[in-house]
């Protein structure tokens, strides 16, 4: 908390608070009279300055399942919601894309004999379930939230409308994009890249629940796996690192949208990334 002195002339028999003080989001309280005039104190002034104004948070389905590996873990989803709330409190506009792998994977379903398009639509419905669960967790801690779906289901969510999504973000609401792109054969990684381009987000935050960045190999299988601090999208494509699918990587590269891969299980990591702390791996057009 800081104090800032606002000094006004001594002749204040008919003193009134200036408009910019009364309308500011910071709470200002009257302290008392000084020799110079009137002293005010600024309470709750934000000292931490985020480096991003609008972000897309990509949360994998596995991140919502916690240690269970399947379904939705209440403790885990509450932890993620609290991290999102901390970021919103900084004034950052947050949009979220949820995966559905904790409930259903379209590729796995197609490998078991289900038509690929049908399996992908089932996966889209799984992302809607995750999105509604995350919306409930956020609203329980008083974070205003809207779910927008690419497949119309007006009884439970809004249809995705780009301008409406941007307006929600400008009003401080968290927007959760569900049901993927609404088309089969596209992953939720592609959804995150597409929505980030559409709403002009500055970065995609890819939250992982097992690894803390991008490695040259699976760190759980190869003890010599090297963690990268920076990569280019061409590196991701050429080395087949599996950060995101090729369609999503190309879309991010073409629209110059950086990607930060980090571990979401450590409390406060989303806030650290938004404040500019170098954690995880950053993927962008070129390496510094």
UniProtKB/TrEMBL annotation:
Keyword hit for Kinase: yes
Main location: cytoplasm
Any one of the GO BP annotations: 'de novo' CTP biosynthetic process
Signal peptide location: none
Keyword flag Hydrolase: no
Regulation: Allosterically activated by GTP. Inhibited by UTP.
Assigned keywords, A-Z: Allosteric enzyme, ATP-binding, Cytoplasm, Kinase, Nucleotide-binding, Pyrimidine biosynthesis, Transferase
Cellular location(s): Cytoplasm
Metabolic or biological pathway: Pyrimidine metabolism; CTP biosynthesis via de novo pathway; UDP from UMP (UMPK route): step 1/1
Binding site for UMP: 100, 120, 181-188
Catalysed conversion reaction: UMP + ATP = UDP + ADP
Any one Gene Ontology molecular-function term assigned to this protein's record: ATP binding
Residue ranges constituting the Aspartate/glutamate/uridylate kinase domain according to the UniProt record: 53-263
Top-level taxon of origin: Bacteria
Database matches in Pfam families: AA_kinase
EC code(s) of this entry: 2.7.4.22
Family: Belongs to the UMP kinase family.
Function: Catalyzes the reversible phosphorylation of UMP to UDP.
UniProt subunit comment: Homohexamer.
Protein name listed in UniProt: Uridylate kinase
Source organism of the structure: Paenibacillus polysaccharolyticus
Lineage of origin: Bacteria, Bacillati, Bacillota, Bacilli, Bacillales
């Amino acid at each position: 908390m800081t104090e800032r002195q606002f000094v006004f002339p001594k002749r204040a028999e008919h003193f009134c608070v200036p408009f910019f003080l009364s309308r500011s989001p910071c709470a200002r309280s009257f302290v008392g009279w000084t020799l110079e005039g009137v002293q005010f104190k600024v309470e709750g002034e934000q000292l931490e300055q985020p480096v991003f104004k609008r972000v897309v948070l990509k949360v994998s389905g596995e991140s919502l399942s916690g240690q269970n590996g399947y379904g939705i873990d209440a403790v885990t989803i509450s932890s993620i919601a609290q991290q999102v709330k901390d970021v919103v409190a900084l004034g950052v506009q947050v949009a979220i894309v949820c995966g559905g792998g904790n409930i259903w994977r379209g590729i796995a379903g197609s490998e078991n004999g289900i038509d690929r398009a049908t399996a992908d639509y089932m996966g889209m419905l799984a992302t809607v379930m995750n999105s509604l669960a995350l919306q409930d967790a956020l609203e329980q801690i008083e974070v205003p939230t809207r779910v927008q779906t690419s497949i119309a289901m007006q009884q439970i969510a809004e249809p995705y409308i780009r301008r409406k999504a941007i307006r929600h973000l400008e009003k401080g609401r968290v927007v959760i994009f569900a049901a993927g792109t609404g088309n089969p054969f596209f992953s939720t990684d592609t959804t995150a890249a597409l929505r980030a381009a559409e709403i002009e987000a500055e970065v995609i935050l890819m939250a992982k629940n097992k690894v803390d960045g991008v490695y040259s190999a699976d760190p759980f299988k190869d003890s010599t796996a090297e963690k990268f601090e920076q990569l280019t999208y061409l590196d991701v494509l050429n080395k087949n690192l599996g950060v995101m699918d090729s369609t999503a990587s190309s879309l991010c590269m073409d629209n110059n949208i950086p990607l930060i891969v980090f571990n979401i299980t450590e409390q406060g990591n989303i806030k650290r990334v938004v404040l500019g702390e170098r954690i995880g791996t950053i993927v962008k057009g070129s390496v510094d």
